[in-house]
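The data layer described in this paper is built around a simple, fixed record for each protein. Such a record has a labelled line for the sequence and another for the backbone structure tokens. For reference, a complete record is included directly beneath this paragraph.
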Amino acid sequence: MPKLKDRKLYSPPRSLKDKLFHFCPGCHHGLAHQLVARAIDDLNLAKRAVGVIGVGCGVFLYDYINIDCCEAPHGRAPAVATGIKRADPELAVFTYQGDGDLAAIGTSEILHAANRKENITIIFINNSIYGMTGGQMAPTTLPGQKTTTTPSGRSTDKEGFPLKMAELLATFEGTAFSARASLHNAREIKKAENAVKRAFLAQLNNKGMGIVELLSACPTNWQLSPEESLKQITNSMIPNFPLGIIKDTI
């Protein structure tokens, strides 16, 4: 048996391309990409997976995962994914969307897709802010959180409360699996990996929509260091967005 130092204990997913991510230091999109790629590998989906990518920082997912991908207009990824899946039900179709894309302009799209029991998988990145467009308040922005459009902090009296999309989507009969996970430490990343795979299994078993909401850091727009951003997830995001499986009928 080879010595421990000579053994490979971890290797990147086969579906992940061998190139550097362009994301800001401390951003968790790269981790989310790896989890999606690992689920594709583990479930042998590489030849029939199709990613539908909404407008946002993750829009270049096709540069990093070696599968067929399609870009969608802002907020319309569930509609595009619905069309692809209905045209060829044998495909494994997923969307990759940020909180502005899914929970703001795309709110009606995701709700009606869940209500129709579309057999698609949703990977939802929640970093509580608009990342790509300059750090404006998002539907998931926390109470008191400062953004470029709420420089004094989000006021629940004026701007309302953060949308809890995982809980909201779990209320639909067409949603088979809904969970919220985080990417701020190794233990939670492992739970997130299992949740992403479970969301794909909902589709593969023809049970309906599967969604995973991933709490992610945005150090640039939070104006925090990568280390401070991890504390922001622990101390501020998780109390507002509790982790765990919300619905599982697979």
